[in-house]
Amino acid sequence: MILLSVNVNKIATLRNARGGQQPNVCQVATDVLRFGANGITVHPRPDGRHIRHQDVFDLKTMITEFNASNRKYREYNIEGYPSKEFLQLVEEIKPDQVTLVPDPPNVLTSNAGWKVSEHRFFLQQVCSHLQIRKMRVSLFVDPNHVNDQFLKDLKVTGTNRVELYTEMFAAAFGTTKQEAITTIYAQAAHKIANIGLKLNAGHDLSLDNVSHLCQQIPFLKEVSIGHSLVCEALYLGFEATIKQYLQLLQGEKHGPAN
Which residues are designated catalytic? Predict the structure, then answer.
């Protein structure tokens, strides 16, 4: 089974539209875990336009308490650009996983993977810094960039995992480009796996397309889904939506988290 981490940024966006605490981010995250999700993802941004600084701490408390009263461990994944402020935040929180993205502060959403060869030594320093503090690191990458030099430099970074940026896959799904684009993802995934790294995937995955991706890359460890899941839950409800995702991810092989 491939694990499902639910990004709750959109819940915070809805709350922030009116102020106050409705919907309550921690309550929704608790329910998402109760319905069977394997973890929670947040992507705090400098302007606090969705997940706020305090939310990151509140969710850490919530997940810690949830894990203390449940047999099955749920993970906390924090995404962000490795600025000084972001690194200070994750050092204090100590999530299970830190997903590093190359986002400038003003982007609407993550829209590119790391140019690893240009930033390999910076990423190496950040990965080592976080790993010494017992956090798993994942780098957000575009499968179009995966070539021999990229793989060599990716290995230099020392990252534990890679998250495949799946917007291109999602855009091609159901079109004449689907097969060609999916092949790019599958080939990139196999090359990354062959250098000893584990893979996650995320961005624009949905109930319609996630199963196809997982069939092509059955050794994925985790998918992170937020926007589409929340949109689908408006019609289906959160519990039914989570359960549908888990059913689609059932049966895929995965080993213990590293």
Answer: 43, 79, 203
